[in-house]
């Protein structure tokens, strides 16, 4: 009986099985059937040959226009030159010593041609391509036409395994296939009108119309969605079984005193989200929540109120920041907001007071020892720090809550390393203005609860964003003129560059800057180059200084303080100013080579201006051509200030990352068919079904086929990754 675990060698023979294994890593029947067509040609539908790219390996359907054979100079062989067309664009085919093909490739014949696109004398061509005639024929090894239906599947192929060889192999397998044990329960398939697994494979590999393709792919997409949702449902069940310490505020504690001293009223959103978080950390089950809010929406106040609840309950709360600049600013901000409530141990301090302690990598040895001591003994209720908090030497007395600011700057492994420091699993709150693709994915899948702040506090001004093309010099002049105008009225500005420059390695750059560097073929703007140009040119006479991650921590701190105090007019910086920097007097930001940054990063950068009562300006300078993806991306950022909308755009462009692995976004994907934005409704339906299945049968003992599918998809590394959230 042939099933999904049957070796291809036993069905297709040693030679073909070896080619499939070496060229495409297909070893068993299940591998081959899961190797789905990339697209489908309708018989007679010609491929648009204008889209062919030199160097690509392609399969095209084209019509023969003419063929001529000529002898090769200095050789007894011959060369056959065939011109094929899509009706508008020609493509040359060159066959060496294959004169017999002239009989098959007569003018008017339509066929499939597979090979690598190259160029000869300015014309694109295929040299010695593989050929598959589409007229009904009798194959040498099987009876009947290879493509009996109107749709011709085109598979991802290898050099020695063209698409039609895969089609022939699939047909042999399907003709031999017995009944398959279906991993999806029958009642689930009935509720959602899904084909059986065997039917789905036939529909995608041998369809008669595109409706059958859609039906088959929908069923196989359900397999992916359900497997992932079952894995997440089992993880949620295990997390809910974990016991942690419930943290509840005291009626007359820190939170009550803090709320009474607030100089402004909380927004309705802040009150609602705060109540939700308080309810969750008041349960003996670890909270796992994302707090999403526009830049300036008051996320820090919400987080601080949650931290105070934990301190009220005798625990400690950590605020993890991605940079030392931001960590130091958070520490100052918390102390300022708390006032006397942050002066524990000082003469005349409020009896309810706690201590706010900072831990960073650049601290002196004595200051570090003192900080670690008060953390270990528990007198520091609020701890603010960078990656330095992840070191083993940091010991907490009773870690109850971790707040991660700008979570896209921390990997899952790093967040998990800190969570492991608690004697019992701590609650987790991650904050962002624009979620990264994997975070959007996890919220869609239901593995990360989300709270949103949509209101801006009173007095905050909108930010107007414009794309400035480098090719239009007059626009660039107006851009620098805007900075001079704002400075003339007493305001300040940022100029952001993708790179630091100089001889050292950049430590502030974003991955997209590196990728764009290779694509653009031109150097990115650097702080070390731009600063003197502005000082001597466009911004001459203004107080212009620089800030980047290669400067000593003390110098960075001093520069940022002087900028905040208005002693610097323009700060030329890298992305060290991306998050948390709060200078309400700064009203203009110019981002040079803005196409080198991702959507989320641009939105974060933009949030540094417009933080006061004066309107903000964000000017995205780019050398990218219009009608390119980079220009479209910048236009999308300019068109909206909605971080959630931009996050979905980022997801559409960069993909969701590997939901079952550590990749934050990009090429690594554990999903082949499932697309989050397109299949969001299906994913939510699969979550309901998965929860029902796991609640009734946690170990899937009554669903062995589903359990095997889950085990195959969820290896040890993926399972461990899920455990870390």
Automatic annotation (TrEMBL):
This is Probable DNA 3'-5' helicase RecG. SUPFAM superfamilies: Nucleic acid-binding proteins (SSF50249), P-loop containing nucleoside triphosphate hydrolases (SSF52540). Residues 280-453 form the Helicase ATP-binding domain. Coiled coil: none annotated. GO terms for molecular function: ATP binding; DNA binding; DNA helicase activity; hydrolase activity. It comes from Candidatus Frankia alpina. Residues 489-652 form the Helicase C-terminal domain. It comes from the Bacteria. The keyword Signal does not apply. The gene is recG. SMART domains: DEXDc (SM00487), HELICc (SM00490). The keyword Nucleotide-binding applies. CDD domains: DEXHc_RecG, RecG_wedge_OBF. InterPro entries: DEAD/DEAH_box_helicase_dom, Helicase_ATP-bd, Helicase_C-like, NA-bd_OB-fold, P-loop_NTPase, RecG/Mfd, RecG_dom3_C, RecG_wedge. Keywords: ATP-binding, DNA damage, DNA repair, DNA-binding, Helicase, Hydrolase, Nucleotide-binding. One of its GO terms (biological process) is DNA repair.
